């Protein structure tokens, strides 16, 4: 960034906004807080007057909420970018924010590193720093968290679009990162995780095939068996027999 990033905060709880201002300034990064607005309408007036580079806004505010504020400013052609702050219970708001072009969503209570990475990521993109590498530092960290989440929740219904909304990364960008980091598509990566765990269950437990199917994320046992055979070249029941025979030797 050639000049300090000018940040406007919008939150109807003045104490929280002031605390966030102190937190941001203590990070020692090249940004400055130019003002605090307590509702969406005030934020719009301050954007017109102060011309900030970034608006960090709460979703729920009186008079005008954060999403309506963003919608209005976007329609007016404001050049500033936006970061949404909100709790997990308000995740539906993040989905609406994506449609408005918002690229960053940080959950409360605010994690200092997460917020700093979100800000730096936005302006790395703006300055063109991300052109040669599709995974600059902050986004790399976000994708690492995404991979960890997938590994921990592989047995749940989880589409790439849902990951996009949860981690606030573009679905196309996620596809690029999966191919770059794992050499496979997201769906293939998820399938590998599930089948690898199924193999362990078959080797180490007496669970029935339908129980294993459910534990690794497949409600349809017949479909699970087809995926298992396509991935390993052998049916689950035959895999268990082969493993048992090998262990007896």
Could you characterize what this model shows?
It is a single chain. With 249 residues, this protein is α/β, with parallel strands linked by helices. The protein has 3 domains: 5-129, Response regulator (Rossmann fold, 3-Layer(aba) Sandwich); 139-183, Arc Repressor Mutant, subunit A (Orthogonal Bundle); 188-248, Orthogonal Bundle (Arc Repressor Mutant, subunit A). Helices cover 58% and strands 11% of the residues. α3 links the parallel β3 and β4 (81-86). The longest helix has 19 residues, at 186-204. It is elongated. The chain starts with a strand and ends with a helix.
Structure keywords:
Rossmann fold, 11% strand, Arc Repressor Mutant, subunit A, 5 strands, 12 helices, five-stranded parallel beta sheet, single chain, 58% helix, 3 domains, elongated, 249 residues, alpha/beta
